[in-house]
Protein backbone atom coordinates (compact mmCIF):
# COMPACT_ATOMS: atom_id res chain seq x y z
CA UNK A 1 0.00 0.00 0.00
CA UNK A 2 2.85 2.35 0.90
CA UNK A 3 4.57 1.34 -2.32
CA UNK A 4 1.48 2.25 -4.33
CA UNK A 5 1.32 5.65 -2.67
CA UNK A 6 5.00 6.25 -3.49
CA UNK A 7 4.26 5.47 -7.15
CA UNK A 8 1.46 8.05 -7.30
CA UNK A 9 3.65 10.70 -5.66
CA UNK A 10 6.50 9.99 -8.09
CA UNK A 11 4.17 10.23 -11.10
CA UNK A 12 2.79 13.54 -9.82
CA UNK A 13 6.24 15.08 -9.34
CA UNK A 14 7.36 13.97 -12.80
CA UNK A 15 4.19 15.25 -14.44
CA UNK A 16 4.36 18.66 -12.83
CA UNK A 17 8.05 19.20 -13.44
CA UNK A 18 7.75 18.28 -17.12
CA UNK A 19 4.76 20.59 -17.53
CA UNK A 20 5.77 23.67 -15.64
CA UNK A 21 9.22 23.89 -17.15
CA UNK A 22 10.03 25.14 -20.65
CA UNK A 23 9.70 22.95 -23.72
CA UNK A 24 6.58 22.52 -25.83
CA UNK A 25 5.55 19.00 -26.89
CA UNK A 26 3.35 20.30 -29.71
CA UNK A 27 6.22 22.35 -31.15
CA UNK A 28 8.40 19.26 -31.10
CA UNK A 29 5.73 17.22 -32.87
CA UNK A 30 5.13 19.66 -35.74
CA UNK A 31 8.62 21.16 -36.01
CA UNK A 32 9.73 24.78 -36.11
CA UNK A 33 8.63 25.47 -39.70
CA UNK A 34 4.98 24.48 -39.29
CA UNK A 35 2.20 26.99 -39.90
CA UNK A 36 0.44 28.45 -36.84
CA UNK A 37 -2.80 26.76 -37.96
CA UNK A 38 -1.27 23.29 -37.95
CA UNK A 39 0.45 24.04 -34.63
CA UNK A 40 -2.86 25.01 -33.01
CA UNK A 41 -4.56 21.94 -34.42
CA UNK A 42 -1.88 19.64 -33.02
CA UNK A 43 -2.01 21.39 -29.66
CA UNK A 44 -5.73 20.80 -29.64
CA UNK A 45 -5.62 17.11 -30.60
CA UNK A 46 -2.90 16.47 -28.01
CA UNK A 47 -5.17 18.01 -25.38
CA UNK A 48 -2.55 20.58 -24.42
CA UNK A 49 -5.13 23.38 -24.23
CA UNK A 50 -6.37 22.07 -20.91
CA UNK A 51 -4.62 23.16 -17.72
CA UNK A 52 -2.09 20.65 -16.37
CA UNK A 53 -4.07 19.53 -13.32
CA UNK A 54 -7.02 18.49 -15.51
CA UNK A 55 -4.67 16.51 -17.74
CA UNK A 56 -3.07 14.89 -14.70
CA UNK A 57 -6.41 13.89 -13.17
CA UNK A 58 -7.62 12.37 -16.45
CA UNK A 59 -4.31 10.52 -16.78
CA UNK A 60 -4.75 9.20 -13.24
CA UNK A 61 -8.34 8.15 -13.97
CA UNK A 62 -7.16 6.27 -17.04
CA UNK A 63 -4.46 4.56 -14.98
CA UNK A 64 -7.03 2.99 -12.70
CA UNK A 65 -8.67 1.49 -15.77
CA UNK A 66 -5.34 0.15 -16.99
CA UNK A 67 -5.02 2.88 -19.65
CA UNK A 68 -1.70 4.71 -19.73
CA UNK A 69 -2.77 7.29 -22.30
CA UNK A 70 -1.38 7.97 -25.76
CA UNK A 71 2.20 8.85 -26.61
CA UNK A 72 2.58 12.37 -28.05
CA UNK A 73 5.60 11.40 -30.10
CA UNK A 74 4.55 8.02 -31.50
CA UNK A 75 0.80 8.76 -31.53
CA UNK A 76 0.08 5.27 -30.22
CA UNK A 77 -1.16 3.99 -26.84
CA UNK A 78 1.68 4.00 -24.31
CA UNK A 79 0.90 0.43 -23.27
CA UNK A 80 1.46 -0.77 -26.86
CA UNK A 81 4.87 0.92 -26.96
CA UNK A 82 6.01 -0.23 -23.54
CA UNK A 83 5.12 -3.89 -24.17
CA UNK A 84 7.66 -4.72 -26.92
CA UNK A 85 10.33 -2.57 -25.20
CA UNK A 86 9.81 -4.50 -21.99
CA UNK A 87 10.15 -7.67 -24.08
CA UNK A 88 13.76 -6.67 -24.70
CA UNK A 89 14.68 -4.92 -21.47
CA UNK A 90 13.34 -7.62 -19.20
CA UNK A 91 15.32 -10.53 -20.74
CA UNK A 92 18.34 -8.21 -20.89
CA UNK A 93 18.00 -7.39 -17.19
CA UNK A 94 17.54 -11.05 -16.24
CA UNK A 95 20.52 -12.16 -18.32
CA UNK A 96 22.80 -9.43 -16.94
CA UNK A 97 21.62 -10.15 -13.43
CA UNK A 98 22.32 -13.89 -13.72
CA UNK A 99 25.71 -13.23 -15.30
CA UNK A 100 26.67 -10.80 -12.55
CA UNK A 101 25.68 -13.33 -9.88
CA UNK A 102 27.60 -16.05 -11.71
CA UNK A 103 30.65 -13.80 -11.48
CA UNK A 104 30.07 -12.50 -7.99
CA UNK A 105 29.23 -15.57 -5.91
CA UNK A 106 32.20 -17.84 -6.80
CA UNK A 107 34.71 -14.97 -6.85
CA UNK A 108 33.44 -13.50 -3.59
CA UNK A 109 33.45 -16.94 -1.94
CA UNK A 110 37.01 -17.68 -3.10
CA UNK A 111 38.22 -14.30 -1.86
CA UNK A 112 36.58 -14.79 1.53
CA UNK A 113 37.91 -18.34 1.94
CA UNK A 114 41.48 -17.22 1.28
CA UNK A 115 41.21 -13.82 2.94
CA UNK A 116 44.45 -11.85 2.85
CA UNK A 117 46.12 -14.32 0.49
CA UNK A 118 47.23 -13.44 -3.04
CA UNK A 119 43.99 -14.85 -4.51
CA UNK A 120 41.92 -12.50 -2.33
CA UNK A 121 44.09 -9.52 -3.24
CA UNK A 122 43.80 -10.39 -6.94
CA UNK A 123 40.01 -10.78 -6.86
CA UNK A 124 39.53 -7.59 -4.88
CA UNK A 125 41.88 -5.69 -7.17
CA UNK A 126 40.01 -6.93 -10.24
CA UNK A 127 36.70 -5.96 -8.67
CA UNK A 128 38.01 -2.44 -8.03
CA UNK A 129 38.87 -2.16 -11.72
CA UNK A 130 35.46 -3.60 -12.65
CA UNK A 131 33.79 -0.92 -10.55
CA UNK A 132 35.74 1.86 -12.24
CA UNK A 133 35.02 0.80 -15.83
CA UNK A 134 32.17 2.69 -17.51
CA UNK A 135 29.74 0.14 -18.95
CA UNK A 136 29.64 1.80 -22.38
CA UNK A 137 33.44 1.75 -22.70
CA UNK A 138 33.28 -1.93 -21.78
CA UNK A 139 30.69 -2.32 -24.53
CA UNK A 140 33.07 -0.76 -27.07
CA UNK A 141 35.92 -3.03 -26.03
CA UNK A 142 33.73 -6.15 -26.09
CA UNK A 143 32.50 -5.27 -29.60
CA UNK A 144 36.08 -4.70 -30.75
CA UNK A 145 37.34 -7.99 -29.32
CA UNK A 146 34.50 -10.50 -29.49
CA UNK A 147 32.56 -9.25 -32.44
CA UNK A 148 34.92 -7.45 -34.83
CA UNK A 149 38.18 -9.34 -34.15
CA UNK A 150 36.85 -12.81 -33.42
CA UNK A 151 33.42 -12.58 -35.07
CA UNK A 152 31.79 -14.57 -32.28
CA UNK A 153 28.77 -12.43 -31.50
CA UNK A 154 26.67 -9.74 -33.20
CA UNK A 155 27.79 -6.20 -32.42
CA UNK A 156 24.43 -4.55 -31.98
CA UNK A 157 20.85 -4.12 -33.12
CA UNK A 158 18.03 -6.56 -32.34
CA UNK A 159 16.25 -8.76 -34.92
CA UNK A 160 13.08 -9.27 -32.87
CA UNK A 161 11.81 -12.31 -31.03
CA UNK A 162 10.34 -13.79 -34.23
CA UNK A 163 13.85 -15.18 -34.72
CA UNK A 164 13.32 -17.25 -31.60
CA UNK A 165 16.21 -18.16 -29.35
CA UNK A 166 18.72 -17.03 -31.98
CA UNK A 167 17.80 -13.51 -30.91
CA UNK A 168 19.42 -14.20 -27.55
CA UNK A 169 22.85 -13.92 -29.16
CA UNK A 170 22.13 -10.22 -29.66
CA UNK A 171 21.69 -9.75 -25.92
CA UNK A 172 24.96 -11.42 -24.87
CA UNK A 173 27.37 -8.51 -25.37
CA UNK A 174 25.05 -5.87 -23.88
CA UNK A 175 24.38 -8.01 -20.85
CA UNK A 176 28.09 -8.75 -20.42
CA UNK A 177 28.90 -5.05 -20.36
CA UNK A 178 26.14 -4.51 -17.82
CA UNK A 179 27.10 -7.57 -15.76
CA UNK A 180 30.82 -6.93 -15.22
CA UNK A 181 30.59 -3.71 -13.14
CA UNK A 182 27.60 -5.08 -11.22
CA UNK A 183 29.29 -8.42 -10.67
CA UNK A 184 32.33 -6.59 -9.29
CA UNK A 185 30.10 -4.75 -6.85
CA UNK A 186 28.23 -7.87 -5.76
CA UNK A 187 31.46 -9.89 -5.40
CA UNK A 188 32.60 -7.41 -2.75
CA UNK A 189 29.24 -7.80 -0.99
CA UNK A 190 29.47 -11.62 -1.07
CA UNK A 191 33.00 -11.54 0.33
CA UNK A 192 32.09 -9.12 3.12
CA UNK A 193 28.99 -11.08 4.13
CA UNK A 194 30.83 -14.41 4.04
CA UNK A 195 33.63 -13.07 6.25
CA UNK A 196 30.91 -12.24 8.75
CA UNK A 197 29.33 -15.70 8.81
CA UNK A 198 32.64 -17.62 8.62
CA UNK A 199 33.44 -16.32 12.09
CA UNK A 200 30.22 -17.72 13.58
CA UNK A 201 30.26 -20.55 16.10
CA UNK A 202 28.09 -22.86 13.95
CA UNK A 203 30.79 -22.83 11.27
CA UNK A 204 33.28 -24.16 13.81
CA UNK A 205 30.68 -26.79 14.76
CA UNK A 206 30.22 -27.80 11.14
CA UNK A 207 33.98 -28.06 10.66
CA UNK A 208 34.40 -30.08 13.84
CA UNK A 209 31.78 -32.52 12.59
CA UNK A 210 34.27 -33.27 9.87
CA UNK A 211 32.28 -31.81 6.99
CA UNK A 212 34.28 -31.08 3.87
CA UNK A 213 35.43 -27.50 3.47
CA UNK A 214 33.38 -26.98 0.33
CA UNK A 215 30.23 -28.18 2.10
CA UNK A 216 30.86 -25.87 5.04
CA UNK A 217 31.42 -22.97 2.70
CA UNK A 218 28.46 -23.54 0.41
CA UNK A 219 25.84 -24.93 2.75
CA UNK A 220 26.56 -23.40 6.12
CA UNK A 221 28.32 -20.13 5.47
CA UNK A 222 27.00 -18.97 2.10
CA UNK A 223 23.28 -19.40 2.69
CA UNK A 224 22.86 -16.95 5.56
CA UNK A 225 25.49 -14.68 4.01
CA UNK A 226 23.32 -14.28 0.93
CA UNK A 227 20.67 -12.28 2.78
CA UNK A 228 22.39 -8.86 2.75
CA UNK A 229 23.65 -9.70 -0.75
CA UNK A 230 20.08 -10.22 -1.96
CA UNK A 231 19.07 -6.80 -0.71
CA UNK A 232 21.78 -5.19 -2.84
CA UNK A 233 21.12 -7.57 -5.72
CA UNK A 234 17.46 -6.56 -5.64
CA UNK A 235 18.40 -2.91 -5.99
CA UNK A 236 20.79 -3.80 -8.81
CA UNK A 237 18.11 -5.73 -10.69
CA UNK A 238 15.42 -3.11 -10.22
CA UNK A 239 17.71 -0.43 -11.59
CA UNK A 240 18.77 -2.60 -14.54
CA UNK A 241 15.31 -2.63 -16.09
CA UNK A 242 15.01 1.02 -17.03
CA UNK A 243 18.58 1.93 -16.12
CA UNK A 244 20.28 0.33 -19.11
CA UNK A 245 19.90 3.61 -21.01
CA UNK A 246 23.52 3.93 -22.07
CA UNK A 247 24.06 0.30 -23.03
CA UNK A 248 20.81 0.07 -24.98
CA UNK A 249 21.85 3.16 -26.89
CA UNK A 250 25.30 1.79 -27.61
CA UNK A 251 23.96 -1.54 -28.90
CA UNK A 252 20.87 -0.08 -30.65
CA UNK A 253 18.50 -2.21 -28.59
CA UNK A 254 14.95 -0.82 -28.72
CA UNK A 255 14.30 -1.40 -25.02
CA UNK A 256 12.98 0.76 -22.20
CA UNK A 257 16.25 2.67 -21.73
CA UNK A 258 16.42 3.78 -25.35
CA UNK A 259 12.74 4.64 -25.21
CA UNK A 260 13.40 6.73 -22.10
CA UNK A 261 15.97 8.85 -23.93
CA UNK A 262 13.66 9.38 -26.92
CA UNK A 263 10.65 10.14 -24.74
CA UNK A 264 12.47 12.60 -22.54
CA UNK A 265 14.05 14.45 -25.47
CA UNK A 266 10.65 14.69 -27.21
CA UNK A 267 8.96 15.78 -23.94
CA UNK A 268 6.51 12.96 -24.51
CA UNK A 269 4.91 13.28 -21.07
CA UNK A 270 2.54 10.27 -21.17
CA UNK A 271 5.34 8.01 -22.35
CA UNK A 272 7.75 9.34 -19.71
CA UNK A 273 5.05 8.79 -17.10
CA UNK A 274 4.57 5.19 -18.23
CA UNK A 275 8.32 4.56 -18.15
CA UNK A 276 8.70 6.07 -14.70
CA UNK A 277 5.85 3.91 -13.44
CA UNK A 278 7.50 0.77 -14.88
CA UNK A 279 10.91 1.72 -13.44
CA UNK A 280 9.73 2.67 -9.97
CA UNK A 281 7.19 -0.16 -9.90
CA UNK A 282 9.77 -2.79 -10.80
CA UNK A 283 12.15 -1.54 -8.12
CA UNK A 284 9.42 -1.68 -5.48
CA UNK A 285 8.32 -5.12 -6.72
CA UNK A 286 11.84 -6.53 -6.66
CA UNK A 287 12.35 -5.22 -3.13
CA UNK A 288 9.21 -7.10 -2.09
CA UNK A 289 10.50 -10.32 -3.68
CA UNK A 290 13.84 -9.86 -1.93
CA UNK A 291 12.06 -9.49 1.40
CA UNK A 292 10.14 -12.70 0.79
CA UNK A 293 13.27 -14.65 -0.17
CA UNK A 294 14.90 -14.06 3.22
CA UNK A 295 12.67 -16.66 4.82
CA UNK A 296 13.80 -19.25 2.30
CA UNK A 297 17.46 -18.67 3.12
CA UNK A 298 17.32 -18.29 6.85
CA UNK A 299 14.71 -20.28 8.80
CA UNK A 300 15.08 -17.88 11.73
CA UNK A 301 13.24 -15.13 9.85
CA UNK A 302 10.48 -17.17 8.25
CA UNK A 303 7.23 -15.27 7.94
CA UNK A 304 4.11 -16.48 9.64
CA UNK B 1 52.25 -0.02 4.18
CA UNK B 2 49.55 -2.58 4.96
CA UNK B 3 46.87 -0.28 3.60
CA UNK B 4 47.51 -0.90 -0.08
CA UNK B 5 44.26 0.72 -1.28
CA UNK B 6 45.11 3.99 0.42
CA UNK B 7 48.58 4.30 -1.11
CA UNK B 8 47.62 3.20 -4.63
CA UNK B 9 44.57 5.45 -4.43
CA UNK B 10 46.69 8.40 -3.32
CA UNK B 11 49.12 7.79 -6.17
CA UNK B 12 46.38 7.52 -8.83
CA UNK B 13 44.61 10.61 -7.48
CA UNK B 14 47.76 12.73 -7.44
CA UNK B 15 48.45 11.81 -11.06
CA UNK B 16 44.82 12.67 -11.94
CA UNK B 17 45.12 16.02 -10.21
CA UNK B 18 48.39 16.73 -11.98
CA UNK B 19 46.81 15.81 -15.33
CA UNK B 20 43.84 18.10 -14.60
CA UNK B 21 46.15 20.99 -13.66
CA UNK B 22 48.29 20.51 -16.77
CA UNK B 23 45.19 20.11 -18.96
CA UNK B 24 43.89 23.42 -17.62
CA UNK B 25 46.95 25.41 -18.67
CA UNK B 26 48.74 23.54 -21.43
CA UNK B 27 48.03 20.95 -24.13
CA UNK B 28 50.39 19.87 -26.93
CA UNK B 29 47.91 21.12 -29.56
CA UNK B 30 44.84 23.29 -29.37
CA UNK B 31 42.18 20.70 -28.40
CA UNK B 32 39.64 22.35 -30.71
CA UNK B 33 41.96 22.80 -33.72
CA UNK B 34 41.12 20.47 -36.62
CA UNK B 35 43.65 18.94 -39.00
CA UNK B 36 46.67 18.81 -36.74
CA UNK B 37 47.23 15.60 -38.74
CA UNK B 38 45.12 13.60 -41.23
CA UNK B 39 41.82 12.36 -39.72
CA UNK B 40 42.13 9.09 -37.81
CA UNK B 41 45.91 9.00 -37.74
CA UNK B 42 46.97 6.11 -35.53
CA UNK B 43 49.08 6.83 -32.43
CA UNK B 44 52.53 8.15 -33.33
CA UNK B 45 55.39 10.09 -31.75
CA UNK B 46 53.69 13.43 -32.52
CA UNK B 47 50.21 12.23 -31.59
CA UNK B 48 50.65 9.59 -28.85
CA UNK B 49 46.87 8.98 -28.67
CA UNK B 50 46.25 9.45 -32.42
CA UNK B 51 43.79 11.89 -33.97
CA UNK B 52 40.01 11.86 -34.38
CA UNK B 53 37.63 12.38 -37.32
CA UNK B 54 38.47 16.10 -37.58
CA UNK B 55 42.20 15.40 -37.22
CA UNK B 56 42.12 16.83 -33.71
CA UNK B 57 44.80 15.57 -31.32
CA UNK B 58 43.21 13.00 -28.97
CA UNK B 59 45.84 13.49 -26.24
CA UNK B 60 45.17 17.24 -26.16
CA UNK B 61 41.45 16.62 -25.93
CA UNK B 62 41.85 14.05 -23.16
CA UNK B 63 44.02 16.52 -21.23
CA UNK B 64 41.64 19.44 -21.79
CA UNK B 65 38.68 17.32 -20.67
CA UNK B 66 40.31 16.46 -17.34
CA UNK B 67 39.68 19.76 -15.48
CA UNK B 68 36.09 19.83 -16.79
CA UNK B 69 35.34 16.33 -15.52
CA UNK B 70 37.02 16.92 -12.17
CA UNK B 71 35.28 20.28 -11.75
CA UNK B 72 31.84 18.78 -12.46
CA UNK B 73 32.31 15.88 -10.06
CA UNK B 74 33.79 17.97 -7.24
CA UNK B 75 31.04 20.58 -7.52
CA UNK B 76 28.25 17.99 -7.68
CA UNK B 77 29.58 16.02 -4.70
CA UNK B 78 30.00 19.29 -2.79
CA UNK B 79 26.43 20.38 -3.52
CA UNK B 80 24.96 16.93 -2.89
CA UNK B 81 27.09 16.39 0.20
CA UNK B 82 26.26 19.70 1.86
CA UNK B 83 22.54 19.47 1.06
CA UNK B 84 22.38 15.83 2.10
CA UNK B 85 24.21 16.43 5.37
CA UNK B 86 22.01 19.40 6.23
CA UNK B 87 18.80 17.51 5.40
CA UNK B 88 19.99 14.41 7.26
CA UNK B 89 20.73 16.42 10.40
CA UNK B 90 17.41 18.22 10.05
CA UNK B 91 15.51 14.93 9.78
CA UNK B 92 17.35 13.80 12.90
CA UNK B 93 16.23 16.91 14.83
CA UNK B 94 12.63 16.60 13.77
CA UNK B 95 11.72 13.27 15.22
CA UNK B 96 8.04 13.78 14.41
CA UNK B 97 6.14 13.70 11.16
CA UNK B 98 8.50 16.06 9.31
CA UNK B 99 11.59 14.06 10.09
CA UNK B 100 9.84 10.91 8.94
CA UNK B 101 8.61 12.59 5.74
CA UNK B 102 12.09 13.94 4.99
CA UNK B 103 13.77 10.58 5.36
CA UNK B 104 11.02 9.05 3.18
CA UNK B 105 11.78 11.55 0.43
CA UNK B 106 15.48 10.71 0.67
CA UNK B 107 14.66 6.99 0.39
CA UNK B 108 12.42 7.79 -2.57
CA UNK B 109 15.32 9.34 -4.48
CA UNK B 110 17.37 6.26 -3.67
CA UNK B 111 14.80 3.89 -5.19
CA UNK B 112 15.25 5.33 -8.69
CA UNK B 113 17.74 4.35 -11.37
CA UNK B 114 20.26 7.22 -10.96
CA UNK B 115 20.66 7.73 -14.68
CA UNK B 116 16.90 7.93 -15.32
CA UNK B 117 16.65 10.55 -12.57
CA UNK B 118 19.51 12.54 -14.08
CA UNK B 119 17.95 12.18 -17.53
CA UNK B 120 14.65 13.65 -16.31
CA UNK B 121 16.36 16.50 -14.51
CA UNK B 122 18.66 17.39 -17.39
CA UNK B 123 15.72 17.53 -19.79
CA UNK B 124 13.83 19.78 -17.44
CA UNK B 125 16.77 22.15 -16.94
CA UNK B 126 18.23 21.84 -20.43
CA UNK B 127 21.53 20.14 -21.28
CA UNK B 128 24.84 21.58 -20.14
CA UNK B 129 27.36 21.59 -17.33
CA UNK B 130 25.12 23.31 -14.77
CA UNK B 131 22.28 20.79 -15.14
CA UNK B 132 24.68 17.85 -14.97
CA UNK B 133 26.16 19.19 -11.72
CA UNK B 134 22.68 19.55 -10.22
CA UNK B 135 21.52 16.13 -11.43
CA UNK B 136 24.55 14.29 -10.06
CA UNK B 137 24.32 16.39 -6.90
CA UNK B 138 20.70 15.34 -6.45
CA UNK B 139 21.36 11.62 -6.38
CA UNK B 140 24.20 12.16 -3.95
CA UNK B 141 21.85 13.80 -1.45
CA UNK B 142 20.28 10.64 0.08
CA UNK B 143 23.63 8.92 0.69
CA UNK B 144 24.96 11.81 2.76
CA UNK B 145 21.55 12.33 4.34
CA UNK B 146 21.46 8.76 5.64
CA UNK B 147 24.94 8.96 7.15
CA UNK B 148 24.29 12.32 8.83
CA UNK B 149 20.93 11.19 10.19
CA UNK B 150 22.28 7.90 11.56
CA UNK B 151 25.22 9.65 13.22
CA UNK B 152 22.97 12.26 14.75
CA UNK B 153 20.52 9.70 16.14
CA UNK B 154 23.40 7.66 17.52
CA UNK B 155 25.18 10.57 19.19
CA UNK B 156 22.06 12.22 20.59
CA UNK B 157 21.86 9.61 23.32
CA UNK B 158 25.52 9.74 24.28
CA UNK B 159 26.67 11.13 27.63
CA UNK B 160 28.87 13.92 26.27
CA UNK B 161 26.03 15.31 24.19
CA UNK B 162 23.72 15.17 27.18
CA UNK B 163 26.38 16.92 29.23
CA UNK B 164 26.62 19.66 26.63
CA UNK B 165 22.85 19.99 26.66
CA UNK B 166 22.82 20.28 30.46
CA UNK B 167 25.20 23.24 30.14
CA UNK B 168 22.52 24.89 28.03
CA UNK B 169 24.01 24.30 24.58
CA UNK B 170 21.41 24.71 21.84
CA UNK B 171 20.74 22.25 19.04
CA UNK B 172 22.82 24.19 16.54
CA UNK B 173 25.81 24.33 18.86
CA UNK B 174 25.55 20.61 19.59
CA UNK B 175 25.46 19.82 15.88
CA UNK B 176 28.41 22.06 15.03
CA UNK B 177 30.73 21.16 17.89
CA UNK B 178 29.77 17.56 18.70
CA UNK B 179 27.90 15.82 15.89
CA UNK B 180 29.70 17.12 12.80
CA UNK B 181 33.27 16.41 13.99
CA UNK B 182 32.18 12.85 14.81
CA UNK B 183 30.37 12.40 11.52
CA UNK B 184 33.23 13.88 9.47
CA UNK B 185 35.02 10.56 8.95
CA UNK B 186 32.15 8.63 7.33
CA UNK B 187 31.11 11.72 5.36
CA UNK B 188 34.62 12.19 3.93
CA UNK B 189 34.79 8.52 2.99
CA UNK B 190 31.41 8.80 1.25
CA UNK B 191 32.50 11.97 -0.55
CA UNK B 192 35.65 10.33 -1.90
CA UNK B 193 33.85 7.33 -3.38
CA UNK B 194 31.07 9.63 -4.61
CA UNK B 195 33.67 11.50 -6.70
CA UNK B 196 34.37 8.34 -8.66
CA UNK B 197 30.69 7.68 -9.25
CA UNK B 198 30.16 11.33 -10.24
CA UNK B 199 32.89 11.05 -12.88
CA UNK B 200 31.24 7.93 -14.30
CA UNK B 201 27.81 9.57 -14.31
CA UNK B 202 29.14 12.69 -16.00
CA UNK B 203 30.70 10.51 -18.68
CA UNK B 204 27.42 8.63 -19.19
CA UNK B 205 25.38 11.84 -19.48
CA UNK B 206 27.90 13.38 -21.87
CA UNK B 207 27.87 10.14 -23.87
CA UNK B 208 24.09 10.52 -24.23
CA UNK B 209 24.69 14.08 -25.47
CA UNK B 210 23.22 15.75 -22.39
CA UNK B 211 26.37 16.95 -20.66
CA UNK B 212 29.28 18.98 -21.99
CA UNK B 213 28.31 20.41 -25.37
CA UNK B 214 30.44 20.29 -28.54
CA UNK B 215 33.03 21.29 -29.52
CA UNK B 216 34.28 21.23 -25.92
CA UNK B 217 35.98 17.98 -25.00
CA UNK B 218 34.71 15.65 -22.29
CA UNK B 219 35.65 12.01 -21.77
CA UNK B 220 32.09 10.77 -22.26
CA UNK B 221 31.47 13.06 -25.23
CA UNK B 222 34.66 11.82 -26.95
CA UNK B 223 33.35 8.25 -26.76
CA UNK B 224 30.05 9.34 -28.32
CA UNK B 225 31.84 11.14 -31.16
CA UNK B 226 34.07 8.13 -31.72
CA UNK B 227 31.15 5.70 -31.90
CA UNK B 228 30.55 5.71 -35.67
CA UNK B 229 34.05 4.78 -36.79
CA UNK B 230 35.54 3.24 -33.68
CA UNK B 231 36.25 -0.02 -35.50
CA UNK B 232 38.62 1.83 -37.86
CA UNK B 233 40.10 4.04 -35.13
CA UNK B 234 39.94 2.21 -31.81
CA UNK B 235 42.37 4.69 -30.22
CA UNK B 236 39.67 7.36 -30.22
CA UNK B 237 37.73 5.14 -27.80
CA UNK B 238 40.43 3.29 -25.87
CA UNK B 239 42.48 6.24 -24.56
CA UNK B 240 39.73 8.52 -23.20
CA UNK B 241 38.23 5.45 -21.50
CA UNK B 242 41.51 4.38 -19.91
CA UNK B 243 42.10 7.85 -18.48
CA UNK B 244 38.56 7.89 -17.10
CA UNK B 245 39.06 4.46 -15.51
CA UNK B 246 42.34 5.64 -13.96
CA UNK B 247 40.64 8.64 -12.36
CA UNK B 248 37.61 6.69 -11.08
CA UNK B 249 39.79 3.87 -9.75
CA UNK B 250 41.88 6.43 -7.87
CA UNK B 251 38.89 7.93 -6.07
CA UNK B 252 37.38 4.52 -5.27
CA UNK B 253 40.63 3.12 -3.85
CA UNK B 254 41.26 6.30 -1.87
CA UNK B 255 37.75 6.03 -0.39
CA UNK B 256 38.31 2.40 0.58
CA UNK B 257 41.73 3.14 2.02
CA UNK B 258 40.40 6.04 4.07
CA UNK B 259 37.65 3.82 5.42
CA UNK B 260 40.19 1.28 6.66
CA UNK B 261 42.34 4.06 8.06
CA UNK B 262 39.55 5.94 9.85
CA UNK B 263 37.48 3.00 11.10
CA UNK B 264 39.36 1.37 13.97
CA UNK B 265 37.12 -1.71 13.86
CA UNK B 266 38.13 -2.48 10.29
CA UNK B 267 41.78 -1.82 11.08
CA UNK B 268 41.93 -4.38 13.84
CA UNK B 269 40.39 -7.05 11.63
CA UNK B 270 43.23 -6.93 9.14
Element order, helices and strands of chain A? HHHHHHHHHHHHH
Main β-sheet of chain A: number of strands, strand sense, barrel status? none
How would a textbook summarize the main sheet of chain B? none
Helix residue percentage of chain A: over 70%
Describe the structure.
By secondary structure, chain A is mainly α. Chain A is built from 13 helices and no strands. Chain A starts with a helix and ends in a 7-residue tail after the last helix. By secondary structure, chain B is mainly α. In chain B, helix 1 (4-25) packs across helix 9 (235-262), helix 3 (97-110) crosses helix 5 (129-156) and helix 4 crosses helix 5 (129-156). Chain B is elongated, with a radius of gyration of 22 Å. Chain B contains 10 helices and no strands. Chain B has a single domain (4-9, 50-269), classed as MetI-like fold, CATH 1.10.3720. The model of chain B has no long low-confidence stretch (mean pLDDT 86). In chain B, 74% of the residues lie in helices and 0% in strands. The chains are: A mainly alpha (304), B mainly alpha (270). Chains A and B meet through helix 1, helix 6, helix 7, helix 10 and helix 11 of A and helix 4, helix 7 and helix 9 of B.
Key terms:
heterodimer, A: 304 residues, mainly alpha, 75% helix, elongated, B: 270 residues, MetI-like fold, 10 helices, 0% strand
Summarize the structure.
The complex is a heterodimer of chains A (304) and B (270). Chain A is mostly helical and 304 residues long.
Task: Outline the fold blueprint.
The complex is a heterodimer of chains A (304) and B (270).
Chain A: H1 2-20, H2 25-30, H3 36-45, H4 52-64, H5 78-113, H6 118-132, H7 135-149, H8 169-198, H9 201-208, H10 213-243, H11 245-250, H12 256-265, H13 269-297
Helix pairs in contact in A: 1-13, 5-6, 5-8, 5-10, 5-13, 6-8, 7-8, 8-10, 9-10, 10-13, 12-13
Chain B: H1 4-25, H2 58-93, H3 97-110, H4 114-125, H5 129-156, H6 159-166, H7 171-207, H8 219-226, H9 235-262, H10 264-269
Helix pairs in contact in B: 1-2, 1-9, 2-3, 2-5, 2-7, 3-5, 4-5, 5-7, 7-8, 7-9, 8-9
